[in-house]
Amino acid sequence: ILNRAQKAYPIEFKLLDYQPEPWSMLKSALFIKGMAETLCMRNDDISATNTLAYFGRETFDFLYPEQNPKQDPIIPKGTKWDFVPKLEASKSAKEKSLIGQTIQTPFEYAPEGIGSNNWAVAGSKTASGNPILCNDPHLNLTLPSTWYEVQIKTKDINAYGVSFPGFPGVVIGFNEKVAWGMTNVGQDVLDWYTIKWVDDSKQEYYVDDEKYKVNQVIEKIEVKGGATVFDTVRYTHWGPVIKNENGPDMAMRWVAHDEGANELDVFQRLSKANNYSDYINALKNYQTPAQNIIFASNEGDIALSVQGKFPIKSKEQGRFIQDGSKSANAWQGFIPFEHIARIKNPERGFVSSANQKSTDSDYPYYYNGSFADYRGRLINRKLEKMEQVTVEDMMVMQNDNYSLKAEDFLPLLLAQMDGASLNEQERKGLDLLKNWKLEFNKDEAAPVLFELWFQQFYIHTWDEVITKNEKGHELLLPEHWRTIALLADNPNDIFFDIIASPEKETAKEISLLSFKEAVQLATQYNKDLSLLKWKDYQGMKIGHIGRIDAFSATNLDVGGHGNSINATSIRGPLNWGPSWRMIVE
């Protein structure tokens, strides 16, 4: 029997038989750490270590280069860095040792598909002469929404935009004088270190042959309708230890565990900022998750800061698991606030970010991470050409479905094709692709064929890695841009050979095989290929937070793709896309 207050609870509380608790500052802090877990908790160093051990150095460097030559970084190429970097003397190879054995991943990766776009155009490129700022963060689409609209008005603040539940401030928004927005940075700020225990009790560990005691913390996990679970977590000076059944125990060094941040203060300060100077001062307390924080003001300034707490690392530090018994493998401090990559009022008349690499390779500090390869290039290409920009132009651009990945890849695939062996259905599919304008529009058939063709081509190219992963080896999969570059530069490379077949295939054979498979798969959706619709294949939805289909918005009538500016994508049960769109003149 529900009392009057309980009857007013949202349906989710009733389904969980849960009574809301009083909110606290701790819950707000935990929410921020939860966002850090989603946005900057990356574990590629574990699978990279496995991959290096499996392939060896030469092949690893060939398949997994750190620089994409086509990348168009957030801070424009050629930017001069007017500071002396804070770097210690580099450690010797003997001191900085990597781990070269195969190690099972201890837990799941952060979700893929996370992205976002933002850009600001200077008044010199707009019809009105005023700057225009745009932002569309790509997060998991949920009901209730990740965001809620909010206006905060006090004697000091009159700000409008969106916030997170329980977060006391405007995260993306504007006041009467300035506007600001966010995209995720993607730099790696989490490293793994092996632990050398003194004995099997695991109460002490070695660093530089000295013994150190662990700090044990007992976590209490209350289970509804069940017994309380107690979990003892061991902390080293590197961080908490994860028990590993298939190799040495490892400790996690993660900037989100560090003290000293005050993200709540950052957004209070942004909400009452009047100019560029206020914007920069507001960012000083921001640490995690690192964000590309964009800015525009009615004084005419536009700016972008790659904001976060970034470790100072030697080259490749953090790409692989490191030996925690050597203090030389520790980070060398953190990049000073004054040296963080940022730009104000560039000559090209705009600033932008779309999760691509932060800087060109001449930035004085080394960093690694996970970066997007296509949206940033396309946004910059479009903005370079635009003049007399209006808010309406920006609306059209936020909904742009064009794919640079298809632009790079489809001509290479078509060049490999010999139509002589195609049946009538396959020739029809090939004609659809030849006439495609490379846009993932909702009612088009060609995007379905392209997506399936790329999928099958990728599977056959990297069957060596995929087969190992199916057996639990946790190897890195080569990036899509690297696959395209391999096809462009060396279509006869050994990696195009399918290991399970007795023949020796090249890109020509697997292009044909992949296309035939793609057509066959596409006919499962509609036997008449011309009636295929991208929206039906993609199946975008906004899922209920409890994953209850009856409470979800399904079969959305939308186009877009994870690599287009209108970035929609599905990753298992999660649906990613523009979770909020904002344009401020």
Could you characterize the architecture of this molecule?
- The chain is α+β, with helices and mostly antiparallel strands and 585 residues long.
- It contains 16 helices and 23 strands.
- The protein has helices at residues 4-7, 11-16, 25-40, 44-55, 57-63, 263-271, 276-282, 375-385, 391-398, 404-416, 424-434, 446-461, 463-470, 480-489, 507-523, 534-538; strands at residues 115-121, 132-140, 142-143, 148-153, 158-163, 172-174, 178-184, 190-194, 204-207, 210-213, 215-221, 229-235, 241-242, 250-254, 291-297, 302-307, 322-323, 342-344, 350-353, 543-544, 569-571, 574-578, 582-584.
- The protein has a 7-stranded antiparallel beta sheet, with no helix packed on it.
- Strand 21 (569-571) and strand 22 form a beta hairpin.
- The longest helix is centred in the last third of the chain and has 17 residues, at 507-523.
- The chain is globular, with a radius of gyration of 25 Å.
- 39% of the residues are buried.
- The model has no long low-confidence stretch (mean pLDDT 92).
Distinctive features:
585 residues; alpha+beta; globular
How many strand elements?
A: 23
Instruction: Indicate the structural class.
Output: alpha+beta
Euclidean distance between termini CA atoms: 52 Å
- The share of residues in extended strands comes to 15-25%
Largest sheet entry: 7 strands, antiparallel
Number of helical regions: 16
Shape: globular
Would you identify the regions where 5 or more consecutive residues have pLDDT less than 50? none
Mean pLDDT: 92
Radius of gyration: 25 Å
Helix content: 25-40%
Strand order of the largest sheet: 4-5-6-7-15-16-18
